[in-house]
Amino acid sequence: MKIGKVHSWKKVFAQVLLLVVPTALLAFYLLWNVNRYYDILQNDWMRQGLYFGAGMLIATVFYGYRFRFITTAALLFAFYFIGYRMVARMQVGEFDAFFVSIRFMVFAILFSLGWITGFGFSRSRYYTVFWSVFLLAAQIIVVSKSPNINAQALISAIVPLLVYAVYIIYAAELIRNMNEDERGFAWFITKRVGGFGVILLLLVLGVFTLFKKDFLAIEKEWGDGKGGNYDKNKGNSESMTKQNRDGSMGNKDQTQLSGSLNKDKRLVFVARLDNFFPDGKTPNPLYFTAYYYTKFDTLTQTFETDSLMPANDLFKPDPSRIPLFFAKTDSTVIKNTHATKNRRVVNAEIYKTLLAANEYIAPSTAFFCQPVPVENAYKDQFKSAYRAKMWVSDLNSAYFIYNPAGNKMLENFQQERFSLLRQVTDWSGVDAAFMKYYTFMPRDAEYDRIATLAKQITQKAGATTAMDKMIALRDYFLSKDSEGQPMFKYSNNPGIPGMPSANKLNYFLFENRKGYCAYYAGATLFMLRSLGIPSRVAAGFLTVDRSSKNPGWYWFYEDQAHAWVQVYFPGYGWIDFDTTIPDLETHEARQPDGTPPLNMQQAYLVADGKVTSVDTVTKKVQMTVEKMLFHDESYDAANNPVPLNVDASIATVTTDTGAVRLSAVKKGMHITAASYAEALKNMKPQGNDNVSSVVKRIPNPTPVDEIKIIEAESEKPTSKKDIFESVEPVDWLRVLWTILIAIAALAVIVLATPWLIWQFLHLRAKAGGSDRARTFRQYRAAMYYLNQLGYYRNQSGPQQYATETDARYSTGFSRFSNVYQKLKYSSLPLSEGEKAIVAQFYRPFIKTVRAKTPFKTRVSKFANIYHTIHYFTQPKIK
């Protein structure tokens, strides 16, 4: 038996072209965006988009025939069940089976969603409305996880959905009302869709122009006023990093204990660390430190930095303010470590991708920063770079707590380390103010409970030295219950206590026992301090040695932002410890480590000073040199700057955000010019050299390879209090409200479109002109008005429709319709009587119809966009 059709091939083709294809393209975009935030999707958005598109295409064509949805859907789910059972029986490893089952689940969900969407496009008139609302809600959820909160990002995320929502509703109604037998069918569809696209574009531009100030206000309130920082984690969400308006990021100078932790997997920076074990081959990774949290706000439960902390050993320069190849050194931080035993200088190179230009991060204790250029081959990948030197303890390592099973060298290293630190038993020689500050903890019942727990743990373990007490606390977090299950677990969503003001650390230690690094570090800090052991929390990045291809190179992703504890041992200084239970999902995640930037060129000449003139045609720059490096010899001419003519024809010009054109260099700018020219290679410094004598010896103009623009530091708040006072606190509700207001405004404009069209036709109908023009305008306005009230002409003849209208409203529409038909199909002039009919028709007609239609009915009918769509897409009589 031949299966009947619901739609002709023309209508099915129109559904595929106008509904399925745009929806599939949008699905690719949305899935690409979602894959950035959910590891389980494995960044396979292309394949996932094909799953959805295939389901939608097949269903649209399939339901063009008279198939029942329930029956066919049951068969589809039976197919899923059989497929899943086959996957379960596959002879593969445990982890492979897991990932195969996840992929099959993703396929089933997306293909089913596409199948339902295809059915909705084919059979349901109102499915497009439901589908549009669903997509907008889903996109708002995804946008809420975005780290880049600015007007451009918000608009680019929402506009495609808004445009699609309005388009898909219009296109579905256009297809439903199309006349398949009309000649020029393709041109008819193209004309309608194209015209609608132009109108929609103008409407969208109008809406977002109107609300541009609101989006910019969000930028300002979430930023620091100079393109700076904002906190994307409001409400009950937290992050270990801060996000900047320009897309860069860095560590935060405080972290609040929260009910959930936001993580991302973007590459932040790459580092080469010249630190190896005694065999000279095995890398000894070190955590990279950004801040020390030494204070705790009990009201907000926030760990904070304190610039007044005793013996401040935090080196925090701004690399973007230091000229290329020139260095900033602070030996005070070395003195403040009070560390003399087992310490040495270690070198590192840091190459930034997302890390902000003004951020400095290095293993502790850093005391040296030297900005260096990025090789041309890597400039697209890395924005800037610097060298760091650190006063590092031989007892520090990223392997400092959890024994790497099977590696005897690392196990022996840990035991030797612990043995040395067990010898430290006396803190009596340490400054009393130092000890009081770093052993301080709040005194109330909640924190006394933490102290009691610490005492019980260490007494049970028989720990007498600070080192053994530290190990006992470590072992407590690793312990198991009576059933052999871990007592503590790592979780990005540890939950919150029942009372908002409840102590979150107590909730973590005594109730749910789930948390992320800040919870483990905070709990360890207070237990150590309650035992009289000076300690603090360090924040930065966890270092993971993932590759054997380039020993000593490490790749740091956003989800490696971390917090841990440092303990002070007299003579040895601050030593790193980490009691956080490993986050296996993060550590096992596949990260695309790449090729590091190798073979940096040697700069023979580096000149730092101000630009006096720029010639972009000849590519010459004149500058006055205030400081100079010549074959690593430093010369100063700040009191008497020396002019230098620079040849920039092959130079790469950069700022802290990347490469720019030579035209970006302006008179008065502070620049650093570096040269690798072979002509300078054999010009060695002489004993009596100064800037002036070097300039006289080198070629004129001097060829340079790098020009770095040192951007002027803008005014900004200097204290944390100023920052909080200069930025009005805003939460995500503001963002969502702005989006919803924009959506509502667009909806109002769409709903008002029928009335605006009517006003246009009404004004034209009342205007003067020739009899012919007036007749045509009045007829068109009258027909639109009746159509908008729900009285469609459909397949009725003109006279039949006019007669029915007269019967309904007691008007003279049929007489006027006869005059209109005469003018349309005949060249004969109108008689005086016919002219009188035209002159006396329109105003009384509209007045009569309006009087006999209740106000509420008129409003509801005119708000129905489907009536308008029907008017412009109604089929014609052949």
From TrEMBL:
Among the Pfam families in the record, one is: Transglut_core
Q: Where is the Transglutaminase-like domain?
A: 509-581
User: Which keywords has UniProt assigned to this entry?
Assistant: Membrane, Transmembrane, Transmembrane helix
Superkingdom as given in the UniProt entry: Bacteria
**TM regions (residue ranges):** 12-32, 48-65, 72-92, 98-119, 126-143, 149-172, 193-211, 735-758
- Membrane as a keyword? yes
Quick one: where's region Disordered? 228-258
Protein's recorded name: Transglutaminase-like domain-containing protein
